[in-house]
Structure to design on (283 residues):
């Protein structure tokens, strides 16, 4: 496995690879790699000649009061996980040279970036789309793999790629969950054992919703109320939002069908967790 730290050096390498006609699959991450990230790497491995993974804790997507400095950075284990999963190139940009010191250019997907998580985390998606576009320009992937765990992020990246005619296929991959149903996330590390038990209510509420919907429930309000009731009574859990929306434009839906997704964001203690259920996966 080759490791690159410099934007230009990697860009020169990917240009060379492209000339040989090899396909490039790309997985962008912030590290602290877990089975969720690994599932993206494995899918990229199956579908491409070359797999490139980036690990970069992107300062642009963190708000001033968020966890940028305490975000886990277990570089050695990330490197080993990549090696063990046959990654060809690991991109570990230097935090102080990835962006030019006088960086001034941003890309924003309007409207979609301002709702749901974007409302609670102003500027977050602008940071995400800017870093992803920059990474796309360095890596020049044929295919890029993103988890449905961050559903709004996936929708926004697909929209950016379509709007800007980027020659990249964006592939959404299933949510990987722990044995108890909790969606894997690097931020789960912040949870105390007690908080982890509380956090379970989020995935459980989605599972209960899934059961109701699978047995024929069509009303978004009924399902919303079910989830709200389950979560609003939990001590040490604060709902940020529950949204039942269209999977393309993220606008509120009244009736449930395959193209509906239920999004939840909630704080457990001071940790903000997100999870979702795409009805396509159960209907
Ligand atoms: P992050 O390192 O949190 O920025 O995530 C990098 C990529 O991994 C994103 O595309 C995430 O959606 C994806 N990812 C994170 N957690 C999971 C999970 N539990 N299942 C599937 N994909 C995930």
């Amino acid at each position: 496995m080759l490791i690159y730290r410099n934007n230009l050096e990697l860009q020169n390498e990917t240009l060379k690879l492209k000339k040989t006609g090899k396909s490039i699959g790309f997985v962008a991450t912030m590290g602290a790699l877990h089975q969720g990230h690994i599932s993206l790497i494995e899918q990229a491995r199956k579908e491409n000649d070359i797999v490139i993974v980036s690990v970069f804790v992107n300062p642009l997507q963190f708000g001033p009061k968020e966890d940028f400095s305490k975000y886990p950075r277990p570089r050695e284990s990330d490197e080993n996980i990549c090696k063990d999963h046959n990654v060809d190139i690991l991109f570990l940009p230097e935090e102080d040279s990835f962006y030019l010191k006088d960086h001034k250019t941003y890309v924003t997907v309007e409207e979609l970036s301002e709702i749901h998580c974007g409302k609670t985390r102003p500027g977050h998606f602008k940071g995400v789309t800017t870093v992803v576009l920059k990474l796309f320009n360095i890596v020049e992937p044929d295919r890029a793999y993103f988890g449905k765990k961050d559903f709004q992020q996936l929708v926004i990246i697909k929209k950016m790629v379509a709007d800007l005619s980027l020659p990249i296929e964006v592939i959404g991959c299933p949510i990987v969950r722990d044995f108890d149903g909790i969606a894997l996330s690097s931020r789960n590390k912040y949870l105390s054992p007690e908080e982890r038990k509380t956090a379970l209510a989020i995935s459980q509420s989605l599972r209960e919703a899934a059961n109701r919907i699978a047995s024929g429930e069509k009303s978004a309000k009924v399902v919303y109320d079910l989830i709200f009731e389950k979560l609003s009574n939990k001590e040490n859990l604060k709902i940020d939002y529950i949204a039942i929306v269209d999977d393309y434009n993220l606008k509120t839906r009244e009736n449930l069908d395959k193209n509906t997704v239920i999004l939840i964001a909630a704080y457990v203690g001071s940790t903000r967790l997100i999870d979702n259920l795409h009805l396509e996966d159960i209907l």
